[in-house]
Automatic annotation (TrEMBL):
Protein name: STAS domain-containing protein
Subcellular location: Membrane
Membrane-spanning segments: 78-101, 107-128, 149-176, 226-245, 266-288, 322-344, 356-374, 394-415, 420-438, 450-481
Organism, as annotated: Aedes albopictus (Asian tiger mosquito)
Entry-linked PROSITE patterns: STAS
Alphabetical keyword list: Membrane, Transmembrane, Transmembrane helix
């Protein structure tokens, strides 16, 4: 076989050639480009030696860092753990209120994750516990159904996260783009803050959805309580001022830093003392949190059945009530936790699989201690980092502080004003609304502002879960449109005595782009009377069976126009896909050469090739 019949340097030994170079029989040439079955084991990365020392240390990070633990780290870890503990106590109580649960459930959710992450966690800065977004997503389903549904949510979320981690399926969260994430986070922050306005002003009502919350505020605005409003708004102002103390210089720098980090605990303690001092016969001028059950939570299996309002719910009934949150909660938890790990990695690689395993176990174990779903908290992780934590051992101190609060301080929580808790939440939400992200998206790629606002608006109007799904759907539509409309360049070149139309797609081709490619090639061929059409596939790394079939259709359609088609610079794997469809048709048409001169010479020698 001569040079013109060589295909990318490969010789197809069992394809007899006529004098005109056209293959007429395939024989057993399929063996040269047959496709192996997909290796699903590679997808899930199942490995032998699952009990190797290396893997055990990878899955139990404590075995790596604990033997090298330096005593000098102990003080820093204790200080950081104490600071985070003082932050998580008021936040935990507040987030339980957001979730529609009694205050103690926020503390039940705040300690076990610390202990489990101490063993399985790989990032020293992350603290696992209740967060605003997880609380809001739980509230949608459990506010009227009670704690059992929150505990079951934690268990199911943990199981799903653990399974996804073991199967290395964490890449699924990569389908949630930055504009969608920013829109979701901003909507969640606005919804949470809106739901706390009633407590800030001392209004009645229980609504936590965005529209319902403002409808409730407008309807009951005449019932605004003066002292609750003054204390709540004053607390927000104090929190924002205390946050600025971290910017002090000189000898006050350390003092300002720790006052800023402890601001939530300080205002809650101050509000509690104020309410206690102003109480007369147990009646305070503010709405109070009320009784908080003291003591540790019972250790028991997560509830797989429940009785609510004299109605018995089986396991399937409970799962049905939880609805789409069974899937949404794990994905959001993974997204939050991995994002935090990346933010504090400081250039180090993140083992996403291990983080998912740790997070899944935190939720599973926590559900045995009456926990609601938990994930990494950006606020508390930032506090942990700023406090100088050196290892995950800081979480032990945080967990102990929460347990001491449950055992010794639960009685004092009675006097915490609701308006102070609302102020703590609202102040935190100010910095979760990602105005900077919207500006960044607009500056970088203006069309990406569409999924941002679609996610933001639908989350506010329809709920977080539906808004997230719609946002992802809109974003995927953009991606699908891009894949279905590849840029197709073309130019006319005369080489020797041959006029060529060279068509150049700029990306890999999948089924959604197949008809578009065919229409463009046929139209360009009609508009440009040439002797030869060359499709340059240098940028095409992949085609599927639909595209292969369409390429055959292009050959047949141009045959009617009496225009032959050659495929130039296509990668070997892509060629093989076409050969498996019809080797007799495609093998003589795929050419490789350093220039169009070689293609022209080959075609000139064989200008009788069947078009």
């Amino acid at each position: 076989m001569d040079k013109c019949n060589a295909n990318g340097g490969m010789m197809y030994r069992n394809i007899p050639q006529h004098e005109n170079g056209l293959a007429v029989t395939v024989g057993d040439a399929e063996d040269d480009y047959s496709e192996e079955l997909p290796q699903l084991g590679e997808l899930f990365k199942f490995r032998n030696g699952c009990c190797s020392t290396k893997l055990i240390k990878k899955r139990l990070p404590i075995l790596t860092w604990l033997p090298n633990y330096n005593r000098q780290y102990l003080v820093e870890d204790i200080v950081a753990g104490l600071t985070v503990g003082l932050t998580v106590i008021p936040q935990g109580i507040a987030y339980a209120v957001v979730a529609g649960l009694e205050p103690q459930y926020g503390l039940y959710s705040a300690f076990m994750g610390c202990f489990v992450y101490f063993v399985f966690g790989s990032c020293k800065d992350i603290t696992i516990g209740p967060t605003a977004i997880m609380s809001l997503m739980v509230q949608i389903h459990v506010a009227n159904l009670g704690p059992p549904f929150a505990m079951l949510s934690a268990f199911l979320a943990g199981c799903i996260i653990l399974i996804l981690g073991l199967l290395n399926l964490g890449f699924l969260v990569q389908f949630i783009s930055m504009p969608v994430t920013a829109g979701f986070t901003s909507a969640a922050a606005i919804t949470i803050a809106s739901g706390q306005v009633k407590s800030l002003l001392g209004l009645p009502g229980k609504s936590n959805e965005f529209l319902d919350s403002w409808e409730n505020v407008i309807h009951n605005i005449q019932q605004t309580k003066l002292w609750d409003s003054l204390l709540g708004i004053g607390t927000i102002v104090v929190l924002l001022l205390m946050m600025q103390l971290k910017n002090l210089d000189g000898s006050w720098k350390t003092f300002g830093k720790y006052i800023s980090l402890s601001r939530n605990a300080i205002v809650v303690i101050g509000g509690t003392v104020l309410a206690y001092c102003l109480s007369t016969d147990g009646v305070a001028p503010f709405q109070l949190t009320g009784n908080v059950t003291s003591g540790l939570p019972p250790v028991q299996l997560p509830p797989f059945s429940a009785v609510v309002h004299n109605q018995t719910y089986s396991f399937t009934d409970m799962v049905s009530e939880l609805g789409t949150s069974v899937i949404a909660l794990p994905l959001i938890a993974i997204l939050e936790s991995i994002a935090i790990a990346k933010a504090f990695s400081k250039g180090k690689s993140i083992d996403a699989t291990q983080e998912m395993i740790a997070l899944g176990l935190c939720n599973i174990v926590g559900s045995f201690f009456s926990s609601m779903p938990v994930t990494g908290s950006f606020t508390r992780s930032a506090v942990n980092n700023s406090s100088g934590v050196r290892t995950p051992a800081g979480g032990i101190t945080t967990g102990i502080i929460v347990l001491l609060a449950l055992g010794l301080l639960a009685g004092t929580f009675f006097y915490i004003p609701k308006t102070v808790l609302a102020a703590v939440i609202i102040a935190a939400m100010f910095f979760m609304v990602e105005f900077h992200a919207a500006a960044e998206i607009w500056r970088t790629k203006k069309i990406d502002i569409i999924p941002f606002f679609v996610t933001l608006i639908t989350c506010l109007l329809l709920g977080l879960e539906y808004g997230m799904v719609i946002g992802i759907g809109v974003n995927m539509c953009f991606v699908l449109y891009q894949t279905s409309r590849p840029t197709i360049r073309h130019y006319i070149e005369r080489v020797g005595n041959v006029d060529m139309l060279v068509v150049v797609p700029d990306q890999s081709l999948v089924y959604s782009s197949a008809e578009y490619l065919k229409a463009r090639v046929v139209k360009l061929s009609q508009q440009n009377p040439v002797e030869l059409v060359v499709i340059d596939g240098y940028a095409v790394n992949y085609i599927d069976s639909t595209v292969a079939k369409i390429l055959a259709g292009i050959i047949e359609d141009l045959k009617i126009q009496e225009r032959p088609v050659l495929f130039w610079n296509w990668q070997r794997a892509v060629q093989h896909t076409a050969f498996r469809l019809d080797a007799e048709l495609f093998v003589p048409r795929f050419k490789s050469g350093s220039s169009l001169d070689e293609i022209a010479k080959c075609w000139s020698l064989d200008n009788r090739i069947e078009a």
